[in-house]
Amino acid sequence: QVQLVDSGGGLVQAGGSLRLSCAASGRPFSSSAMGWFRQAPGKEREFVASISWNGGSTEYADSVKDRFIISRLSDKNMVYLQMNSLKPEDTAVYYCAAAIVYRTSRIASHYNYWGQGTQVTVSS
């Protein structure tokens, strides 16, 4: 069983930064790819970023590339999403997720475990 708890959301002005955290417990966290997805009101959940089990490979959605950074600290069972140069269009509930059999993935159905979500609101 794997449990994920994501946190760090809040209200920030456009151009500002936030750092989201995901704390994982249970097996097999150390062998899982990790990802971040987001869902805005009235829209489908969309891919944001993914990182491999050893942190060696990352993927980003085009909309966040060069602004967001995903990182993984396996010794602390923590995954982070550093969000810089935030835009109002980044406003959404952000979800941490873990995939067992993929190194990285942009597909939500590939992920087996999900956090409860944390709200990010970016004002103009």
Provide the structure class. Answer: mainly beta
- How many strands? 11
Report the uncertain regions: none
What is the share of helical residues? Answer: under 10%
The tally of helices reads 0
Question: What summary fits the major beta sheet?
Answer: 7 strands, mixed
Hey, roughly how much beta strand do the residues contain?
over 45%
Evaluate the radius of gyration. Answer: 13 Å
The topology string of helices and strands comes to EEEEEEEEEEE
Arithmetic mean pLDDT: 92
How would you sum up this structure in a few lines?
With 124 residues, the chain is an all-beta fold.
Give the arrangement of secondary structure elements.
Elements: E1 3-7, E2 10-13, E3 18-25, E4 33-39, E5 46-51, E6 58-60, E7 68-73, E8 78-83, E9 92-99, E10 113-114, E11 118-123
Parallel strand pairs: 2-11
Antiparallel strand pairs: 1-3, 3-8, 4-5, 4-9, 5-6, 7-8, 9-10, 9-11
